[in-house]
Design goal:
mainly beta, 11 strands
Length: 118
């Protein structure tokens, strides 16, 4: 059974940085795309960034493009989200998830809280 565990969340000031990690465990872990999502209080979950495992092709939501960077370490089965120039509106619970097809995501982490103060 594949399990995803996020870490690295916390409190940051506006303009600051945080780095999130998502470690995958389980026998014969495989993936096609890994994604980072976030959900702010009272809002729907939204996609933040994705990375295709084979060629590291990336996608970013317009709201984070130029500020966030998604990357992966194949040997560690870990995906990262480097978040720079943080804004209060980045405050949310951040989740990582796996997609085997590039479509739906079938495995989700428990989430990590990111809070950005102004």
């Amino acid at each position: 059974q594949v399990r995803l565990v996020e870490s690295g969340g916390g409190l940051a000031q506006a303009g600051g940085s945080l780095r999130l990690s998502c470690a995958a465990s389980g026998r014969a872990f495989s993936t096609y795309v890994m994604g980072w999502f976030r959900q702010a209080p009272g809002k729907e979950r939204e996609i933040v960034a994705t990375i295709r495992w084979t060629d590291e092709n990336t996608y970013y939501a317009a709201s984070v493009k130029g500020r966030f960077t998604i990357s992966r370490d194949n040997a560690k089965n870990t995906v990262y989200l480097q978040m720079n120039s943080l804004k209060p509106e980045d405050t949310a619970v951040y989740f990582c998830a796996r997609s085997l097809s590039g479509g739906g995501y079938d495995v989700w982490g428990q989430g990590t809280q990111v809070t950005v103060s102004s």
